[in-house]
Design goal:
The complex is a heterodimer. Chain A is mainly α. Chain A contains 14 helices and no strands. Chain B has a single domain, classed as Up-down Bundle (Methane Monooxygenase Hydroxylase, Chain G, domain 1), CATH 1.20.58. Chain B has six helices and no strands. Classes of the chains: A mainly alpha, B mainly alpha. The interface between A and B is medium-sized, with 21 and 20 residues.
Chain lengths: 333, 214
């Protein structure tokens, strides 16, 4: 059973890698500035680092959402989330594991009539709203500033190309690190809910984290080009500079909701803090793209594509929850 | 730093390519002035050879730039537009060479009455192309090109007027056989085309700058 649970979580990791490479490097790959293989390799390494060095910050939020009892529960939740994620990848829609897992966990709670921490759920949903908004504002301000600076201090095209490329790689690395820090906690969370000693024997959480990261990394090499095209070109035709700003806005916003260190600093300064909850990277990135489009008065933004993405975000948790309930019901039979 | 070296090398190649076109314009002016004085002479042939040499050098530079742009994945969003610009500029240097070859083959007799006006037209033409080359360099440096593009338009218009005056002179004032009149008309038309090509490229460049504005 333990092995099956691990296989389940690895399938989910693979799906996450497939869909989320577009959230990290999608704009860079879509604009042709970074090769898919290079992006996958970088994502692989830095998701690993993020997961191991700061991956536990968001785990407690997931733990509070559902008290999974057996490895079979973990498999059910993970497989439900993976199915929804894979479905969205095939439709070319950027999605996030956070929404799918949360949906599946709430589905699990519903099925077993367990108590749901609605306060936490609302806090998470509020963060899902704030994070894209912060990314949009950051992208908007950054883009306007960059335009102003480049207008007064022109940079030769080739030098600009090189600088943007380096910037895209560095920010992509940063985003991969924050994804590892923010999102792997969501996947390892359910494992913490059961005693590692009793259920997994010799399997320890670092081993589980390692396997998840490995699956994410492999998934990155299988990245769905449809999702990358949606992010890089379909939603809004981004220039390489804009792609860089989108990635920067995304990484900045993600950092706010992932770093314990930042939270401590804000608390020390008696400033309002950001909740350390898992954030869907895709939402944040779409927010940043909308921020860029607003610098051009919203021109060029494909509202139909945006509408499709927004509807999918609403449906994702519901679908995951429904599929999870369905699996649990089948298991009961 | 190796990364920046490659970029610098490519930039240097494009600048050499553009400088060659400007230099070819100067050589064309010299060659035609020489032709007006001495018709086909060793000096003219030497200048023609020099233009052909620069044209060949530019062909290989163009190919190198094309290869490098694609091999190093440089400027992915604008490389097709840059190549279009470079190919357009290459057509201008080809035209310089073709015109000189045409003269050396046809050896048209240029009447003294129009030599000065023709000289002026050639100088304006070359100035028009040189301004275009400066605009391309400015665009590559990320600088504003509005004034340069405006200058190209003005110079092209001047060339049109000069060419019209020349054609009028050939057909209405000079008493020449129809065959010579037609040959001169073709010769003037061929030179006039250079500034038209420059103006077309200036339009392409304007679109390029608007399209790739940050």
């Amino acid at each position: 059973m333990t092995e099956i649970a691990l296989i389940g979580i690895m399938i989910l990791g693979w799906s996450l890698g497939r869909n989320n490479l577009s959230n990290l490097f999608g704009t860079a790959i879509g604009t042709g500035m970074v090769r898919l293989k290079s992006a996958a390799m970088l994502a692989f390494v830095f998701i690993f680092m993020g997961a191991f060095l700061s991956g536990s910050a968001t785990t407690s939020s997931v733990l509070a959402l559902g008290d999974l009892r057996t490895p079979l529960d973990i498999i059910t939740v993970m497989i439900s989330a993976a199915i929804v994620l894979e479905l969205l990848s095939r439709c070319g829609i950027p999605a996030s594991i956070v929404q799918t897992i949360m949906g599946a966990l709430i589905g699990w709670n519903f099925f077993y009539r367990a108590k749901i921490d609605w306060e936490l759920v609302l806090q998470m949903i509020a963060a899902w709203f704030w994070a894209p908004l912060i990314a949009a504002v950051m992208a908007f301000i950054l883009m306007r500033k960059i335009r102003k600076v480049l207008f007064h201090h022109p940079i030769p095209l080739f030098l600009r190309d090189r600088l943007i490329r380096i910037g895209l790689i560095l920010v992509g690395i940063w985003a991969a690190y924050t994804l590892g820090a923010n999102n792997t906690g969501v996947m390892t969370g359910p494992f913490f809910s059961i005693s590692a000693e009793t259920i997994f024997g010799t399997f320890f959480v670092p081993v589980v984290t390692f396997l998840i990261c490995l699956a994410i990394g492999i998934g990155c090499f299988w990245a769905d080009k449809k999702v990358i095209t949606t992010v890089g070109r379909k939603l809004f035709p981004l220039s390489p500079t804009e792609a860089l700003v989108v990635m920067l806005g995304t990484a900045l916003s993600m950092t706010c909701f992932s770093m314990q260190f930042l939270r401590n600093v804000l608390m020390d300064c008696h400033l309002p803090t950001f909740p350390l909850v898992p954030i869907p990277v895709s939402n944040v990135m779409i927010g940043a793209i909308c921020g860029i489009s607003l610098t051009k008065g919203g021109n060029g933004l494909r509202w139909s594509v945006l509408g499709r993405i927004l509807v999918s975000w609403l449906l994702v948790p519901i679908m995951a929850g429904f599929i999870c309930c369905l699996f649990l019901w089948i298991r009961g039979i | 730093m190796e990364l920046f070296k490659k970029t610098k090398l490519l930039e240097t190649k494009i600048n050499t390519f553009l400088n060659n076109i400007t230099h070819c314009g100067e050589l064309l002016t010299l060659a035609l002035q020489c032709y007006f004085k001495k018709e086909i002479c060793p000096e003219f042939m030497h200048l023609r050879e020099k233009v052909s040499g620069l044209e060949a050098e530019n062909d290989s530079l163009r190919r190198e730039v094309e290869n490098q742009l694609y091999a190093q994945l440089l400027l992915p969003d604008m490389r097709s537009d840059i190549l279009r610009l470079i190919e357009g500029c290459d057509k201008i240097i080809n035209k310089y060479e073709t015109d000189l070859i045409l003269i050396s083959i046809e050896q048209p007799k240029i009447p003294k009455e129009i030599q000065k006006a023709l000289s002026h037209m050639i100088i304006t033409n070359v100035q028009c192309v040189s301004t275009l080359m400066d605009s391309v360099k400015a665009a590559m440096a990320g600088k504003s090109i509005t004034e340069n593009i405006h200058s190209v338009s003005i110079l092209e218009h001047q060339v049109d007027l000069q060419a019209m005056d020349l054609k009028k002179c050939v057909f209405q004032e000079l008493k020449l056989p129809l065959a010579r009149q037609l040959q001169l008309k073709e010769f003037i038309y061929s030179l006039e085309k250079i500034s038209d090509m420059a103006e077309d490229m200036a339009d392409v460049l304007s679109v390029f700058v608007v399209k790739h504005a940050i």
